[in-house]
Every structure is written in C-alpha cells, then in structure tokens.
Amino acid sequence: MRILSLFLFLPLVVCSTPTPQVSEEEVMREGMVSSSTYQVMVSVIAANAEEARIKGEPEARRKAFNLIVREPFFRGMLSDEGRRQLRLIVDQKGRVVRVKQEPDLTYTVFFQITQPGGIRDLFRNIR
Fold first, then answer.
1. pTM across the whole model
2. Beta strand residue intervals within 27-124, DSSP E
3. CATH of the domain at 48
4. Which one of 27, 28, 72, 78 counts the least CB within 10 Å of its CB?
C-alpha cells in the first residue's frame, strides 16, 4: 500500500516544480544579450518613471552607440559612412524597453536595439 501511495504522490511533486525564473543578474547585462538584441542601461535621477524615460533615452542612445563602436566585430576603424549607418540603426531600431525604480530614488533605464533575424550580422556588414 505504501508503494502505491508513493507512486500516486510522486507525479504530483514532479509536475508541481516551478518553472525557472530569469534572474536579475541576467536582465542586468549590457552588450549583446542575444543574437538579435543589444542592450545598455543608464541610471538617472528623476521624479517619476516618465521623466526618467525622457531623461534617460538620449543618454542611452549615446552610450549604445559608443559601446557598439568598441565591439570586436568592428575590426579596425569605422569609416564616416559606417558611423553614420550605425547612428541611424541606433536611432531607428533602439527604444526604451523598461524603466526600473531603484531604492535610492534613481531609475535604471533599459534601452535595446533589436533586429529580428540578427543584429550581429547587421553590424558586421557596416564598415
């Protein structure tokens, strides 16, 4: 009888295990977070989330551009035309995806540049 009750109880334990959650550390990464997404974060002091978004977006765009230029897939120097193309990609494909309030009255603004099918390949074609 004990063996039968064990077999009846075991599937409940196995089926009720929680699904893995994305850790805060994984979300708090900068750079290529996937093959189609490049992410940066900036901290701003603001009265509310909307003000943080407005203040943080231009700063995040500058930071994204400066970090992308230093990525290893840009071997050597970028031409002026390449820099212009890169700036255009950041401006057109980048957007604020999250604004998180921190305990010290600051906000963290998450900015992502996304290209379905792969942003890395798009960057590699720029010279």
1. 0.74
2. 31-34, 37-45, 94-101, 106-114
3. 3.30.1660
4. 72
